[in-house]
Amino acid sequence: MNLIWTNLRVPVEEDERQLPLMIARKLKVSQQSISNLRILRRSVDARKKPQLLFSYTLGFSLDIPYKEVNRVLHRVADLKPEPQIMAKPLMKPEKNLKHRPIVVGAGPAGYFAALTLAKGGYAPLVLEQGDDVETRSLKVENFWRTGQLDTESNVQFGEGGAGTFSDGKLTTRIADPRITEVLETFVEQGAPPEIRFLAKAHIGTDILKIVTQRLREKIQSLGGEVRFRAKLTGLRHQNEKIIGVEVNHQEVISAEAVILAIGHSARETYRLLLAQGIHLEQKAFAVGLRIEHPQKLINISQYGVEFHSKLGPADYQLTYQDTTTGRGAYAFCMCPGGKVVAAASDVERLVTNGMSEYRRDTEIANSALVVTVGKDDFQGKHPLAGVEFQEHWEHQAFLAGGRDYKAPAQSVRDFLAKRVSRDFLLPSSYTPGIRPVELHGVLPQAVGDVLDRALFFFDRKIQGFAGEMGTLTGIETRTSAPVRITRDKAGEALHIQGLFPAGEGAGYAGGIMSAAVDGIRSAERIMAQYNPAD
Protein backbone atom coordinates (compact mmCIF):
# COMPACT_ATOMS: atom_id res chain seq x y z
CA MET A 1 0.00 0.00 0.00
CA ASN A 2 1.17 3.56 -0.75
CA LEU A 3 1.32 5.70 2.40
CA ILE A 4 2.01 9.31 3.39
CA TRP A 5 3.71 10.13 6.71
CA THR A 6 3.55 13.75 7.83
CA ASN A 7 5.34 15.57 10.67
CA LEU A 8 8.12 13.03 11.03
CA ARG A 9 10.79 14.92 12.98
CA VAL A 10 14.43 13.89 12.74
CA PRO A 11 17.58 15.66 14.07
CA VAL A 12 19.24 17.53 11.21
CA GLU A 13 22.52 15.72 11.93
CA GLU A 14 21.00 12.35 10.97
CA ASP A 15 21.98 10.88 7.61
CA GLU A 16 18.99 11.13 5.27
CA ARG A 17 19.99 7.81 3.70
CA GLN A 18 18.95 6.16 6.98
CA LEU A 19 15.31 7.22 6.65
CA PRO A 20 14.09 3.77 5.51
CA LEU A 21 15.69 2.21 8.60
CA MET A 22 14.17 4.87 10.88
CA ILE A 23 10.73 4.29 9.39
CA ALA A 24 11.03 0.52 9.74
CA ARG A 25 11.98 0.80 13.41
CA LYS A 26 9.18 3.26 14.20
CA LEU A 27 6.58 1.10 12.41
CA LYS A 28 8.08 -2.14 13.73
CA VAL A 29 8.35 -3.69 10.27
CA SER A 30 11.27 -4.99 8.23
CA GLN A 31 13.27 -2.50 6.21
CA GLN A 32 12.79 -4.74 3.14
CA SER A 33 9.03 -4.09 3.27
CA ILE A 34 9.59 -0.37 2.58
CA SER A 35 10.15 0.78 -1.00
CA ASN A 36 9.68 3.78 -3.31
CA LEU A 37 10.59 6.23 -0.54
CA ARG A 38 10.08 9.85 -1.60
CA ILE A 39 10.66 13.06 0.34
CA LEU A 40 7.55 15.10 -0.42
CA ARG A 41 8.36 17.99 1.88
CA ARG A 42 11.13 18.99 4.27
CA SER A 43 11.16 22.01 6.55
CA VAL A 44 13.23 23.13 9.53
CA ASP A 45 11.83 22.95 13.06
CA ALA A 46 13.90 25.35 15.19
CA ARG A 47 11.45 25.87 18.05
CA LYS A 48 13.91 24.33 20.52
CA LYS A 49 17.08 25.86 19.06
CA PRO A 50 19.94 25.10 19.11
CA GLN A 51 18.37 21.62 18.93
CA LEU A 52 17.36 21.60 15.26
CA LEU A 53 15.08 19.14 13.53
CA PHE A 54 13.93 18.40 10.00
CA SER A 55 10.17 17.91 9.72
CA TYR A 56 9.45 15.50 6.87
CA THR A 57 6.46 14.51 4.83
CA LEU A 58 7.33 11.18 3.25
CA GLY A 59 5.67 8.96 0.68
CA PHE A 60 6.51 5.27 0.48
CA SER A 61 5.14 1.83 -0.28
CA LEU A 62 4.63 -0.65 2.54
CA ASP A 63 4.55 -4.30 1.47
CA ILE A 64 2.99 -6.17 4.40
CA PRO A 65 -0.34 -8.00 4.80
CA TYR A 66 -3.41 -5.74 4.66
CA LYS A 67 -4.40 -6.49 8.27
CA GLU A 68 -0.94 -5.46 9.46
CA VAL A 69 -1.20 -2.19 7.49
CA ASN A 70 -4.43 -1.35 9.31
CA ARG A 71 -2.78 -1.95 12.67
CA VAL A 72 0.12 0.33 11.70
CA LEU A 73 -2.26 3.06 10.54
CA HIS A 74 -4.19 2.84 13.78
CA ARG A 75 -1.02 3.13 15.85
CA VAL A 76 0.59 6.13 14.00
CA ALA A 77 -1.68 9.18 13.83
CA ASP A 78 0.30 11.00 11.13
CA LEU A 79 0.35 8.01 8.77
CA LYS A 80 -2.36 7.92 6.08
CA PRO A 81 -3.05 6.11 2.80
CA GLU A 82 -1.88 8.12 -0.19
CA PRO A 83 -4.87 9.78 -1.93
CA GLN A 84 -5.70 8.57 -5.41
CA ILE A 85 -5.85 11.23 -8.11
CA MET A 86 -8.45 10.55 -10.77
CA ALA A 87 -7.61 11.79 -14.26
CA LYS A 88 -10.25 13.99 -15.86
CA PRO A 89 -11.59 12.79 -19.23
CA LEU A 90 -10.38 14.94 -22.12
CA MET A 91 -13.07 16.64 -24.22
CA LYS A 92 -12.21 17.40 -27.83
CA PRO A 93 -13.20 20.98 -28.79
CA GLU A 94 -15.53 21.54 -31.73
CA LYS A 95 -13.58 24.50 -33.22
CA ASN A 96 -10.15 24.76 -34.79
CA LEU A 97 -7.88 27.79 -34.51
CA LYS A 98 -7.22 29.56 -37.78
CA HIS A 99 -3.94 31.00 -36.50
CA ARG A 100 -1.40 29.95 -33.92
CA PRO A 101 -1.96 31.35 -30.40
CA ILE A 102 0.17 34.28 -29.26
CA VAL A 103 1.74 34.64 -25.83
CA VAL A 104 2.86 38.15 -24.87
CA GLY A 105 5.67 37.96 -22.32
CA ALA A 106 8.46 35.46 -21.63
CA GLY A 107 8.26 35.34 -17.82
CA PRO A 108 7.00 32.34 -15.82
CA ALA A 109 3.35 32.82 -16.83
CA GLY A 110 4.24 33.30 -20.48
CA TYR A 111 6.74 30.49 -20.80
CA PHE A 112 4.63 27.91 -18.98
CA ALA A 113 1.61 28.91 -21.04
CA ALA A 114 3.69 28.54 -24.19
CA LEU A 115 5.17 25.22 -23.07
CA THR A 116 1.70 23.83 -22.34
CA LEU A 117 0.46 24.93 -25.76
CA ALA A 118 3.56 23.60 -27.50
CA LYS A 119 3.15 20.19 -25.87
CA GLY A 120 -0.42 20.15 -27.18
CA GLY A 121 0.71 20.82 -30.74
CA TYR A 122 -0.47 24.45 -30.90
CA ALA A 123 2.90 25.92 -32.05
CA PRO A 124 2.58 29.16 -30.04
CA LEU A 125 4.33 32.42 -30.86
CA VAL A 126 5.94 34.14 -27.84
CA LEU A 127 6.54 37.89 -28.10
CA GLU A 128 8.97 39.47 -25.62
CA GLN A 129 9.83 43.17 -25.64
CA GLY A 130 13.21 42.59 -23.98
CA ASP A 131 16.25 40.51 -24.86
CA ASP A 132 17.09 36.84 -24.44
CA VAL A 133 18.40 36.07 -20.96
CA GLU A 134 22.06 36.06 -22.02
CA THR A 135 21.93 39.52 -23.65
CA ARG A 136 19.64 40.82 -20.92
CA SER A 137 22.10 39.77 -18.21
CA LEU A 138 24.88 41.74 -19.87
CA LYS A 139 22.68 44.84 -20.05
CA VAL A 140 21.69 44.52 -16.39
CA GLU A 141 25.33 44.20 -15.33
CA ASN A 142 26.18 47.24 -17.44
CA PHE A 143 23.39 49.25 -15.78
CA TRP A 144 24.64 48.31 -12.32
CA ARG A 145 28.15 49.31 -13.32
CA THR A 146 27.49 52.49 -15.33
CA GLY A 147 23.91 53.62 -14.71
CA GLN A 148 23.06 53.23 -18.41
CA LEU A 149 19.49 51.87 -18.48
CA ASP A 150 17.83 50.03 -21.35
CA THR A 151 14.12 50.64 -20.71
CA GLU A 152 13.11 47.65 -22.83
CA SER A 153 15.50 45.10 -21.31
CA ASN A 154 16.43 45.31 -17.61
CA VAL A 155 15.72 43.70 -14.23
CA GLN A 156 11.97 43.91 -14.91
CA PHE A 157 11.78 43.19 -18.66
CA GLY A 158 13.29 40.44 -20.76
CA GLU A 159 13.37 36.66 -20.97
CA GLY A 160 12.58 35.07 -17.62
CA GLY A 161 10.66 38.04 -16.25
CA ALA A 162 11.36 39.96 -13.06
CA GLY A 163 11.89 36.76 -11.07
CA THR A 164 15.10 36.02 -12.97
CA PHE A 165 16.91 38.68 -10.92
CA SER A 166 15.62 37.64 -7.51
CA ASP A 167 16.18 34.72 -5.18
CA GLY A 168 14.24 32.39 -7.46
CA LYS A 169 11.86 31.49 -4.63
CA LEU A 170 9.36 28.73 -5.37
CA THR A 171 7.13 29.16 -2.33
CA THR A 172 3.46 29.87 -2.91
CA ARG A 173 0.23 30.01 -0.94
CA ILE A 174 -1.88 28.47 -3.68
CA ALA A 175 -2.83 24.79 -3.62
CA ASP A 176 -2.95 23.45 -7.16
CA PRO A 177 -1.90 20.10 -8.65
CA ARG A 178 -0.12 21.99 -11.43
CA ILE A 179 2.56 22.98 -8.89
CA THR A 180 4.08 19.52 -9.21
CA GLU A 181 4.16 19.93 -12.99
CA VAL A 182 5.98 23.25 -12.67
CA LEU A 183 8.56 21.87 -10.24
CA GLU A 184 9.21 18.80 -12.39
CA THR A 185 9.66 21.03 -15.43
CA PHE A 186 12.18 23.18 -13.59
CA VAL A 187 14.15 20.08 -12.55
CA GLU A 188 14.07 18.71 -16.11
CA GLN A 189 15.57 22.00 -17.32
CA GLY A 190 18.41 22.07 -14.79
CA ALA A 191 17.03 23.20 -11.43
CA PRO A 192 18.30 21.36 -8.32
CA PRO A 193 16.21 18.22 -7.58
CA GLU A 194 15.58 19.19 -3.94
CA ILE A 195 13.11 21.88 -5.04
CA ARG A 196 10.62 19.01 -5.28
CA PHE A 197 10.40 18.74 -1.50
CA LEU A 198 11.98 21.70 0.28
CA ALA A 199 9.38 23.78 2.13
CA LYS A 200 11.24 26.95 1.13
CA ALA A 201 12.72 25.95 -2.18
CA HIS A 202 14.67 28.35 -4.33
CA ILE A 203 16.69 28.16 -7.54
CA GLY A 204 18.83 31.29 -7.41
CA THR A 205 19.48 33.82 -10.15
CA ASP A 206 22.49 32.00 -11.58
CA ILE A 207 20.69 28.69 -12.14
CA LEU A 208 17.39 30.33 -13.07
CA LYS A 209 19.08 31.94 -16.08
CA ILE A 210 20.11 28.49 -17.33
CA VAL A 211 16.65 27.04 -16.69
CA THR A 212 15.01 29.93 -18.55
CA GLN A 213 17.18 29.41 -21.62
CA ARG A 214 16.40 25.69 -21.64
CA LEU A 215 12.67 26.38 -21.33
CA ARG A 216 12.92 28.49 -24.46
CA GLU A 217 14.77 25.73 -26.27
CA LYS A 218 12.14 23.19 -25.17
CA ILE A 219 9.30 25.37 -26.49
CA GLN A 220 11.14 25.77 -29.79
CA SER A 221 11.83 22.04 -30.08
CA LEU A 222 8.08 21.41 -29.78
CA GLY A 223 7.23 23.77 -32.62
CA GLY A 224 6.89 27.07 -30.79
CA GLU A 225 8.60 30.32 -31.75
CA VAL A 226 10.10 32.96 -29.45
CA ARG A 227 10.80 36.49 -30.70
CA PHE A 228 12.81 39.04 -28.70
CA ARG A 229 12.69 42.83 -29.01
CA ALA A 230 9.10 42.25 -30.15
CA LYS A 231 6.98 44.76 -28.25
CA LEU A 232 3.19 44.73 -28.12
CA THR A 233 2.11 48.12 -29.51
CA GLY A 234 -1.52 47.43 -30.30
CA LEU A 235 -4.41 45.00 -30.11
CA ARG A 236 -6.82 44.25 -32.91
CA HIS A 237 -10.33 43.31 -31.83
CA GLN A 238 -13.66 43.33 -33.63
CA ASN A 239 -17.18 42.54 -32.41
CA GLU A 240 -15.74 41.92 -28.91
CA LYS A 241 -13.31 39.30 -30.21
CA ILE A 242 -9.53 39.47 -30.49
CA ILE A 243 -8.35 39.18 -34.09
CA GLY A 244 -4.65 40.04 -33.80
CA VAL A 245 -1.81 42.08 -32.31
CA GLU A 246 0.47 44.84 -33.52
CA VAL A 247 4.22 44.47 -32.88
CA ASN A 248 6.77 47.29 -32.80
CA HIS A 249 4.29 49.65 -34.56
CA GLN A 250 5.08 47.80 -37.78
CA GLU A 251 3.68 44.28 -38.02
CA VAL A 252 0.14 43.00 -37.47
CA ILE A 253 -0.13 39.31 -36.61
CA SER A 254 -3.53 37.63 -36.82
CA ALA A 255 -4.71 35.53 -33.86
CA GLU A 256 -7.98 34.62 -32.21
CA ALA A 257 -6.28 33.53 -28.95
CA VAL A 258 -3.81 35.82 -27.13
CA ILE A 259 -2.38 35.34 -23.63
CA LEU A 260 -1.27 38.58 -21.94
CA ALA A 261 1.55 37.60 -19.54
CA ILE A 262 3.07 41.07 -19.38
CA GLY A 263 4.55 41.24 -15.85
CA HIS A 264 3.82 43.59 -12.96
CA SER A 265 5.90 46.51 -14.29
CA ALA A 266 4.38 46.80 -17.78
CA ARG A 267 3.23 50.37 -17.33
CA GLU A 268 3.36 51.31 -20.99
CA THR A 269 1.31 48.24 -21.86
CA TYR A 270 -1.26 49.06 -19.17
CA ARG A 271 -1.72 52.48 -20.76
CA LEU A 272 -2.05 50.87 -24.18
CA LEU A 273 -4.69 48.42 -22.96
CA LEU A 274 -6.70 51.15 -21.28
CA ALA A 275 -6.62 53.27 -24.43
CA GLN A 276 -7.91 50.30 -26.43
CA GLY A 277 -10.89 49.71 -24.19
CA ILE A 278 -9.62 46.86 -22.02
CA HIS A 279 -11.09 47.03 -18.51
CA LEU A 280 -8.51 47.70 -15.79
CA GLU A 281 -9.00 48.45 -12.12
CA GLN A 282 -6.86 49.67 -9.24
CA LYS A 283 -5.26 47.07 -6.99
CA ALA A 284 -3.61 47.39 -3.59
CA PHE A 285 0.09 46.59 -3.24
CA ALA A 286 2.90 47.53 -0.83
CA VAL A 287 5.86 49.91 -0.76
CA GLY A 288 8.81 50.39 1.55
CA LEU A 289 12.56 49.90 1.87
CA ARG A 290 15.21 47.19 1.69
CA ILE A 291 16.93 46.21 4.93
CA GLU A 292 20.32 44.47 5.21
CA HIS A 293 21.94 42.65 8.14
CA PRO A 294 24.95 40.38 8.59
CA GLN A 295 23.72 36.88 7.78
CA LYS A 296 25.24 35.63 11.06
CA LEU A 297 22.82 37.82 13.03
CA ILE A 298 19.86 36.15 11.34
CA ASN A 299 21.36 32.67 11.71
CA ILE A 300 21.85 33.10 15.46
CA SER A 301 18.30 34.33 15.91
CA GLN A 302 16.70 31.58 13.82
CA TYR A 303 19.00 28.60 14.47
CA GLY A 304 20.91 29.48 17.64
CA VAL A 305 24.25 29.11 15.79
CA GLU A 306 26.23 31.34 13.43
CA PHE A 307 26.25 28.73 10.69
CA HIS A 308 24.96 25.21 10.11
CA SER A 309 26.36 23.23 7.18
CA LYS A 310 23.12 21.27 6.64
CA LEU A 311 20.80 24.27 6.76
CA GLY A 312 22.61 27.05 4.95
CA PRO A 313 21.78 30.69 5.69
CA ALA A 314 18.58 31.31 7.64
CA ASP A 315 15.64 33.33 6.41
CA TYR A 316 12.76 34.98 8.25
CA GLN A 317 9.10 35.86 7.86
CA LEU A 318 7.90 38.92 9.75
CA THR A 319 4.47 40.54 9.85
CA TYR A 320 3.08 43.46 11.81
CA GLN A 321 -0.45 44.84 12.05
CA ASP A 322 -0.50 48.52 12.90
CA THR A 323 -3.37 49.26 15.29
CA THR A 324 -3.12 53.03 14.71
CA THR A 325 -3.70 52.93 10.95
CA GLY A 326 -4.95 49.41 10.28
CA ARG A 327 -2.14 48.90 7.77
CA GLY A 328 -0.08 45.75 7.52
CA ALA A 329 3.71 45.74 7.35
CA TYR A 330 5.75 42.69 6.44
CA ALA A 331 9.06 41.35 5.20
CA PHE A 332 8.90 40.57 1.51
CA CYS A 333 11.24 38.73 -0.89
CA MET A 334 13.74 37.85 1.84
CA CYS A 335 17.11 36.94 0.30
CA PRO A 336 19.52 35.05 2.60
CA GLY A 337 23.14 35.38 1.54
CA GLY A 338 22.15 37.79 -1.21
CA LYS A 339 22.46 41.42 -2.19
CA VAL A 340 20.35 44.49 -2.91
CA VAL A 341 20.18 45.43 -6.59
CA ALA A 342 19.06 48.32 -8.76
CA ALA A 343 15.79 47.31 -10.41
CA ALA A 344 14.68 50.40 -12.34
CA SER A 345 12.85 50.04 -15.64
CA ASP A 346 12.11 53.74 -16.29
CA VAL A 347 14.52 56.64 -16.63
CA GLU A 348 14.81 58.95 -13.61
CA ARG A 349 13.01 56.47 -11.37
CA LEU A 350 14.81 54.38 -8.76
CA VAL A 351 13.73 50.95 -7.55
CA THR A 352 15.48 48.47 -5.24
CA ASN A 353 15.10 44.71 -5.14
CA GLY A 354 16.82 41.71 -3.59
CA MET A 355 18.69 38.88 -5.29
CA SER A 356 20.49 35.68 -4.30
CA GLU A 357 22.40 33.09 -6.24
CA TYR A 358 21.89 29.41 -5.53
CA ARG A 359 24.72 29.14 -2.99
CA ARG A 360 23.51 32.20 -1.01
CA ASP A 361 27.07 32.90 0.07
CA THR A 362 27.45 36.71 0.33
CA GLU A 363 27.13 36.76 4.16
CA ILE A 364 24.51 39.52 3.81
CA ALA A 365 20.81 38.95 4.54
CA ASN A 366 18.37 41.37 2.95
CA SER A 367 14.63 41.77 2.68
CA ALA A 368 12.05 44.32 1.70
CA LEU A 369 10.13 45.88 4.58
CA VAL A 370 6.90 47.10 3.06
CA VAL A 371 3.59 48.60 4.09
CA THR A 372 0.28 48.11 2.33
CA VAL A 373 -1.14 50.96 0.24
CA GLY A 374 -4.44 51.13 -1.58
CA LYS A 375 -7.10 53.28 -3.16
CA ASP A 376 -7.16 55.83 -0.33
CA ASP A 377 -3.44 56.54 -0.92
CA PHE A 378 -3.73 57.12 -4.65
CA GLN A 379 -4.70 60.37 -6.32
CA GLY A 380 -8.18 59.73 -7.68
CA LYS A 381 -10.11 56.80 -9.06
CA HIS A 382 -8.31 56.45 -12.38
CA PRO A 383 -7.42 52.78 -13.06
CA LEU A 384 -3.71 53.69 -13.30
CA ALA A 385 -3.59 55.87 -10.16
CA GLY A 386 -1.51 53.16 -8.44
CA VAL A 387 0.99 53.23 -11.31
CA GLU A 388 1.28 57.02 -10.97
CA PHE A 389 1.75 56.60 -7.21
CA GLN A 390 4.68 54.24 -7.84
CA GLU A 391 6.20 56.55 -10.43
CA HIS A 392 6.02 59.57 -8.12
CA TRP A 393 7.85 57.93 -5.23
CA GLU A 394 10.40 56.24 -7.49
CA HIS A 395 11.24 59.66 -8.94
CA GLN A 396 11.60 61.11 -5.43
CA ALA A 397 14.06 58.33 -4.60
CA PHE A 398 15.98 59.00 -7.83
CA LEU A 399 16.32 62.69 -6.94
CA ALA A 400 17.32 61.94 -3.34
CA GLY A 401 19.96 59.46 -4.50
CA GLY A 402 21.70 62.08 -6.61
CA ARG A 403 20.13 61.47 -10.04
CA ASP A 404 22.63 58.74 -10.96
CA TYR A 405 20.75 55.64 -9.71
CA LYS A 406 22.63 55.56 -6.42
CA ALA A 407 20.16 54.55 -3.74
CA PRO A 408 19.22 56.81 -0.83
CA ALA A 409 20.30 54.98 2.31
CA GLN A 410 20.28 55.23 6.10
CA SER A 411 21.19 53.07 9.05
CA VAL A 412 18.21 51.62 10.88
CA ARG A 413 19.07 53.50 14.08
CA ASP A 414 19.32 56.80 12.21
CA PHE A 415 16.06 56.09 10.39
CA LEU A 416 14.32 55.69 13.73
CA ALA A 417 16.00 58.88 15.00
CA LYS A 418 15.20 60.72 11.71
CA ARG A 419 18.78 61.85 11.10
CA VAL A 420 21.11 61.42 8.13
CA SER A 421 23.68 58.68 8.65
CA ARG A 422 27.34 59.62 8.84
CA ASP A 423 28.69 56.10 9.10
CA PHE A 424 27.36 52.72 7.98
CA LEU A 425 28.62 49.85 10.12
CA LEU A 426 27.26 47.45 7.49
CA PRO A 427 28.24 48.62 3.98
CA SER A 428 25.32 48.24 1.60
CA SER A 429 25.56 45.60 -1.11
CA TYR A 430 23.57 47.83 -3.49
CA THR A 431 25.24 48.75 -6.78
CA PRO A 432 25.93 51.30 -8.23
CA GLY A 433 26.26 52.65 -4.66
CA ILE A 434 24.40 54.54 -1.93
CA ARG A 435 24.01 58.14 -0.78
CA PRO A 436 23.16 59.05 2.87
CA VAL A 437 19.62 60.48 3.03
CA GLU A 438 16.85 60.82 5.60
CA LEU A 439 14.60 58.13 4.13
CA HIS A 440 11.31 59.36 5.57
CA GLY A 441 11.51 62.01 2.87
CA VAL A 442 11.31 59.45 0.07
CA LEU A 443 8.34 57.56 1.54
CA PRO A 444 4.67 58.42 1.93
CA GLN A 445 4.34 59.69 5.49
CA ALA A 446 1.93 56.92 6.48
CA VAL A 447 4.36 54.28 5.23
CA GLY A 448 7.33 55.80 7.09
CA ASP A 449 5.35 56.07 10.33
CA VAL A 450 4.23 52.44 10.18
CA LEU A 451 7.77 51.25 9.41
CA ASP A 452 9.01 53.06 12.52
CA ARG A 453 6.65 51.05 14.70
CA ALA A 454 7.15 47.82 12.74
CA LEU A 455 10.93 47.94 13.20
CA PHE A 456 10.59 48.04 16.98
CA PHE A 457 8.14 45.14 16.81
CA PHE A 458 10.43 43.07 14.55
CA ASP A 459 13.36 43.74 16.88
CA ARG A 460 11.50 41.79 19.56
CA LYS A 461 11.28 38.83 17.17
CA ILE A 462 14.90 39.01 15.94
CA GLN A 463 17.27 40.57 18.44
CA GLY A 464 19.34 43.28 16.76
CA PHE A 465 16.97 43.70 13.81
CA ALA A 466 16.54 47.41 14.59
CA GLY A 467 20.09 47.73 15.95
CA GLU A 468 23.26 49.32 14.71
CA MET A 469 24.06 46.58 12.17
CA GLY A 470 21.05 47.25 9.96
CA THR A 471 21.13 49.34 6.75
CA LEU A 472 18.10 50.60 4.84
CA THR A 473 17.94 51.52 1.16
CA GLY A 474 15.01 52.81 -0.86
CA ILE A 475 12.66 52.57 -2.47
CA GLU A 476 10.90 49.22 -2.97
CA THR A 477 7.70 49.59 -5.00
CA ARG A 478 7.37 46.53 -7.26
CA THR A 479 5.93 44.08 -4.74
CA SER A 480 3.00 43.27 -7.02
CA ALA A 481 0.99 44.77 -9.84
CA PRO A 482 -0.80 48.04 -9.04
CA VAL A 483 -3.46 47.08 -11.59
CA ARG A 484 -5.79 44.17 -12.29
CA ILE A 485 -6.81 43.36 -15.87
CA THR A 486 -10.32 42.19 -15.09
CA ARG A 487 -11.26 38.80 -16.48
CA ASP A 488 -14.42 36.70 -16.48
CA LYS A 489 -15.07 33.15 -15.29
CA ALA A 490 -13.61 31.79 -18.52
CA GLY A 491 -10.35 33.65 -17.83
CA GLU A 492 -10.88 36.11 -20.68
CA ALA A 493 -10.69 39.90 -20.51
CA LEU A 494 -14.10 41.45 -20.01
CA HIS A 495 -15.93 41.87 -23.31
CA ILE A 496 -12.93 40.68 -25.39
CA GLN A 497 -13.25 37.01 -26.30
CA GLY A 498 -9.93 35.30 -26.90
CA LEU A 499 -7.80 37.67 -24.79
CA PHE A 500 -6.48 35.89 -21.69
CA PRO A 501 -4.74 38.07 -19.04
CA ALA A 502 -2.40 35.89 -16.97
CA GLY A 503 0.16 36.02 -14.18
CA GLU A 504 1.44 38.85 -12.02
CA GLY A 505 0.93 41.57 -14.59
CA ALA A 506 -2.75 40.73 -14.83
CA GLY A 507 -3.06 40.95 -11.04
CA TYR A 508 -3.83 37.26 -10.51
CA ALA A 509 -0.52 35.88 -9.21
CA GLY A 510 2.36 36.73 -6.92
CA GLY A 511 5.68 35.01 -7.47
CA ILE A 512 7.20 32.50 -9.86
CA MET A 513 5.05 29.50 -8.94
CA SER A 514 1.61 31.11 -8.93
CA ALA A 515 2.45 32.97 -12.15
CA ALA A 516 3.55 29.74 -13.86
CA VAL A 517 0.39 27.95 -12.71
CA ASP A 518 -1.80 30.81 -13.94
CA GLY A 519 -0.04 30.64 -17.31
CA ILE A 520 -0.78 26.92 -17.55
CA ARG A 521 -4.43 27.57 -16.71
CA SER A 522 -4.70 30.17 -19.47
CA ALA A 523 -3.22 27.74 -21.99
CA GLU A 524 -5.65 25.03 -20.86
CA ARG A 525 -8.56 27.42 -21.39
CA ILE A 526 -7.50 27.95 -24.99
CA MET A 527 -7.05 24.22 -25.49
CA ALA A 528 -10.53 23.57 -24.06
CA GLN A 529 -12.06 25.88 -26.69
CA TYR A 530 -9.97 25.15 -29.77
CA ASN A 531 -8.04 22.46 -31.56
CA PRO A 532 -4.67 23.51 -33.04
CA ALA A 533 -4.61 25.35 -36.34
CA ASP A 534 -4.22 23.12 -39.39
TrEMBL record:
- In this chain the FAD-dependent protein C-terminal domain maps to 284-479
What terms describe the molecular function in GO for this protein?
Answer: oxidoreductase activity
Which InterPro entries does UniProt cross-reference here? FAD-binding_protein, FAD-depend_C, FAD/NAD-bd_sf, FAD/NAD-binding_dom
Where does the record place the FAD/NAD(P)-binding domain? Answer: 102-268
This protein is called Uncharacterized protein
Annotated source species: Desulfitobacterium chlororespirans DSM 11544
